[in-house]
TrEMBL record:
InterPro entries: Complex1_LYR_dom, Complex1_LYR_LYRM7. It comes from the Eukaryota. This is LYR family of Fe/S cluster biogenesis protein. It comes from Forsythia ovata. Residues 66-127 form the Complex 1 LYR protein domain.
């Protein structure tokens, strides 16, 4: 009798476990391992996405490279107007060109697009500011010369 009850209990327990397992699987239906979890929830990149991202990155780098070269050329052009010597007797043109070259060389291998953009914007602002100050000083100089010639 005890064996019959034990066998029935075992059978009932097995059926309960199967039912519970099926119900849990239907409710949970989740991954059993970390690998399955990652595989199910991580976005898989296909080759096309990778190629598109690479093309976009290449275009962005080409664009910023073009902008950097344009800025460098503008600096070289702008320094033509700085033809007076500094306290050491070196032309400001040469000092400015040397400093620009050093700045560009220091930032040559910068990969962060935000930093590159900040550098380009800062460079453009610096060139514009220097040219504006130069124009203002030249206007003052012309005005001063006119006033001196009117006094005579």
């Amino acid at each position: 009798m005890i064996t019959k009850i034990t066998a029935l209990n075992r059978l009932f327990l097995i059926q309960s476990l199967r039912h519970h397992h099926l119900r849990r699987q239907l409710l949970h239906d989740g991954p059993d391992t970390v690998e399955e979890l990652l595989d199910r929830h991580l976005v898989k990149r296909d080759k096309k996405d990778s190629e598109d991202n690479e093309l976009l990155t290449r275009q962005r780098l080409t664009s910023t490279r073009r902008e950097a070269l344009s800025l460098y050329r503008d600096i070289i052009r702008a320094t033509r107007f700085f033809m007076w010597p500094d306290s050491r007797g070196v032309l400001w043109r040469d000092v400015l060109r040397e400093n620009a070259r050093k700045e560009f060389e220091d930032a040559r291998f910068e990969k962060d697009p935000e930093i590159v953009t900040q550098l380009l914007i800062g460079g453009r602002d610096a060139v514009q500011s220097a040219l504006d100050k130069l124009v203002e000083k030249q206007k003052q100089q012309i005005e001063k010369e006119r006033n001196e010639s009117n006094r005579r």
